[in-house]
Structures are given as structure tokens and as C-alpha cells.
Amino acid sequence: MSLSTEPLAVTGAAGAAESAAPALAARTSGLRKVYGRTVAVDCVDLEVPQGAVLGLLGPNGSGKTTTIRMLLGLTRPSAGSVELLGVPMPDGADRALPHVGALVEGPGFHPFLSGRENLRRCAAAEPLLPTGGISRAVDEALERVGLAAAATRKYRGYSLGMKQRLGLAAALLVPRRLVVLDEPTNGLDPAGTREIRGVMAQLHESGTTVVVSSHLLAEVEATCTHVAVLHQGTAVAQGGLQELLDAGTPTLTVSTEDVQLAVDTLRDNRIPFKLDVDGVRIELVTTTSQQVIEKLVLAGVGVREARRERTGLEELFARLTESDVREGS
Fold this sequence. Notes:
Elements: H1 12-20, E1 24-35, E2 38-49, E3 53-57, H2 64-71, E4 79-84, E5 87-89, H3 93-96, E6 100-103, H4 115-124, H5 134-144, H6 160-171, E7 178-182, H7 190-205, E8 209-213, H8 217-223, E9 226-231, E10 234-240, H9 241-246, E11 251-256, H10 259-268, E12 273-276, E13 279-283, H11 289-298, E14 303-309, H12 313-320
Parallel strand pairs: 3-8, 3-9, 6-7, 7-8
Antiparallel strand pairs: 1-2, 1-4, 4-5, 9-10, 11-13, 11-14, 12-13
Helix pairs in contact: 4-5, 5-6
């Protein structure tokens, strides 16, 4: 069966209804995957907005890679449905996948061929890439991921980070509507990680949707516009990154030498707080930063510095993936 290169489009009344709703590059509904008695993914409803950079987060064994494999049609769901670029999967794989670049569970190439030779083989199988454009596409992809200088070296001599780069190059041989990356910075040094971050930023600027699975929360916070958190095979949170972070309880950290007076003042006004190495950390649940500072100053507290903070991704992730049931409880 050959892969279709027809453009994907939604027409008619159904298309008009779709245009009124937020455009989605991918969607799952009631997605479930069972291996014997093990439930790997359980009723995941996932929406990936078109043009977003979505970070797929979760502890080991949370179902991230299994979800990605079902999204790409590599694994058939036990239940539920998947749409990729508006096409049902896996039955519509021949229509959707030419427009999708993916790096899943590490790249696989011929060990005795060079990086360029491996990439030329990948390029020859691209239905959207004419034969006359293969050499240029390969050179541009190698340059884009920083492998141009190592292009003639055999793949077996590549480091783990270089293998990851070559896998990413294969995903970027032609312009894509969607790029799916499973732990793309695995094995990379800080410089390589910054380069991959730059590639993701370029994809985002060009309008390409990116789904990236990663355990590096700082990288996700720096590069992603949206986040979906999986825990024990279920999506426990998803949405815009800023919205999720803003939904956490904001705090105000007050630095002062009058710690005891500050504590007494906060207790008298029933304002929740915790002692912090820098002074006092106040939860802004029923009050505002301005009101807190006014009360402290009127009480005679010498406020040296006041810094408003919000929930970080690491704190949010820990809260969402914390086990509800603890042993012995």
C-alpha cells in the first residue's frame, strides 16, 4: 500500500463545524491499551492544539510512549479512538503519516553505514520528497542538527547523543505539519540540548505542531506552550502551560530581619505562611501581595524585599503525580 500525498482537509458541513472549534493537530478519546493484565493507558482524552508545542510528562511507566505509539498508529488501541491531523488512526496512516516526523524510543539505523548514507535511505522512502531533492534535504537536515562534520562517520561509531541527532534529522527531512519527539535530548550534553531547543523553537515559529515527551521539566517549561501530565496511565492534567502554572497557589516571599514580628502579624491576621530560608513565605489564598505588605509595615516589620512567585512546573508535576494512596495509611 502506497502512502497518499494528498493534502489533508475537512470539507462540507462537518468542515464548517470544525472551523468554529479550536483546530487540533491530534486528539484521543477514551484511549486505552491493555497488555495481558497490565493496563498501560487508561481512558486518556488528549487534545493537541494546532501549532502548539505540547510537553507530554509523566513518571516512568505512566504510559507516555504507549500513548505516542497509538497516536502514530504503531500500536492499535484496546479501546478508544485516535485522530491525527483530522484522520482516524491507524486506518488513515497512509494519509496522515507523510505529514508527520517522529523520533520514538530511540533511532534505529544501519550500524555499518555512515550518517549521511543512513539518512539518504530514509529520504528515499519519503513520499513528499522528490528524488532530485534528496541530496539537498539530507545536507540541510544534517546541518540543522549539528551533524554535518560527522556525516561520513559510520553510525556504529556515533555516541548516544549523535544517534539522537541523526534520528531527529530523519524526522526533519521534509517540512512537517506535526513532529513527535520521544525524549529527544536523551544523551545530549548541555550544548546539544540548547541546539535541540533551538530546533523546536524554529518548528514552532514555522507553525509546526510539536509533541515532545521529556523528563527534563526545566526544558519543558522553557520550550513548551502546552502540557499534558500522565500518571498511572491516565491524563491528570492538560492545557496551556501558563494557565496550569497560574492555577497553582501564588506565594509572596518576604525577606526581613523581624521574622518573629512578621510571624505574629500574619497569625493575628489569619494569613497562612511558612518559614523560609529567606524569611517568610506567604500563601496568597485570601489576600493580595499589597495587603500583606501593608499589614506587615503597619505592624513595624522591616520589609527588606518582597518577591511574588507562582507554582513552578516541578512543584506542579510533583503534586499531580503524587500517589493518592500511601502504604500504611
